[in-house]
Amino acid sequence: MLTIEKKTLKVGKYVSTEHVNTVIRTYKQERWVQNSERIGKEDSLTVWYSIEELEEFLATAKRHSADGVKFCFAAYPENYAERPEYAGRQTIVMVATKTKEQENGLGQRDVYIQGENGPKILAYNAGRICPPMCPPPPPPPNDADSWGDIGTALVDKGENGMLII
Prior knowledge:
The chain is of the alpha+beta class. The longest helix has 23 residues, at about 15-40. It is about 20% helix and about 30% strand. The chain folds into two domains: about 15-45 and about 150-165, no CATH class; about 45-130, no CATH class. A hairpin with a 2-residue loop joins strand 3 (about 90-100) and strand 4 (about 105-110).
């Protein structure tokens, strides 16, 4: 009997609440304030997708031999007419990838599928970004299951005062 061992491609890990708070707070203090000032409005802080649509995208990616997903930081153009409230704000684009052996080791190549007008990248975007599409504020926290308070940061804007985000 022949046994083929499949090597794992896992690169991430589960992280603690402290880690999540630290990296979100760092982002808000070191990137978000400057991004918001540059575009003249609050930049997005999150992108939300339902589990249903994530599962559908992953199933489609698997059907086309993908073995991973690349999350690309992106921004809508200033003249984004499809959803003007998203114009200029950052987002995430998910791109299906396939691991390939290359000269310098393993690498990931974007997956393309046949579209009506030829090959097209297998990618997913247009999630609910916040701001501007933020859910209502959560109820006051009273247990460990409360949500919405991760990464809260106090940002010193110098002469422009302080900001809690």
